[in-house]
Amino acid sequence: MNTTSAIKASLRKRSTFARVAGCVAIAASVLAAQRIANSAEAPTKIPPPVQDEQAGATHSETAVFAGGCFWGVQGVFEHVRGVKQVAAGYAGGAAGTAHYETVSDGDTGHAESVQITYDPTQISYGRLLQIFFSVAHDPTELNYQGPDHGTQYRSAIFPANAQQRSVATSYIAQLDKAHVFSGPIVTRVEDYKGFYPAENYHQNFLVLHPDYPYIAINDLPKVSGLKRMFPELYRNDPVLLKTSGL
Fold it and tell me: Which residues form a coiled coil (predicted)?
């Protein structure tokens, strides 16, 4: 399957929005503006974590989050200062099933995820979680995000070590206790079993295809929300993943 065909197949599976092939960019932008103004999934202002990681001498650590379609989550974190790269991929299942067509069936254990490589001297794991919960996705939606349904679109965190697990579980408890969302947080803190990069045509998708109706409606408002809610962390020029080795 060539890249164009792969993207089209991916869009067909993604949602009914993705099948509106004749939708023009202007109309999509109008819908995006309406969605961010009226949707219950609009960014939620939340406090930073009380407990956070202790930065050491290292300048490179990784975080793995799952929050629905990886196009939008990757696109958000590519605009965050202190982030060195973001890969879209799969986590939660076995290596042999880490392929889009297989994961899309919803029974592999995988979730569409992102692996964020970041500099902990510039941004902490807790601050990444704050962006994840408030801007990148809705943590109250169980096994779906917006138009995408299935366990592959679940909200999940895959800690790389005990400190990340402690920060994540503590933060979820903090936010639930504060009742900052309209419903309980359903985000799962799962064991990290490995991260498997997605196919090249999925990488940097938001930046490369901003006029796709799905992106304009569902994902560009998240980037706008990041800029509005975290101006001190927003970078205008996204850091893109180099895909030659994938």
Answer: none
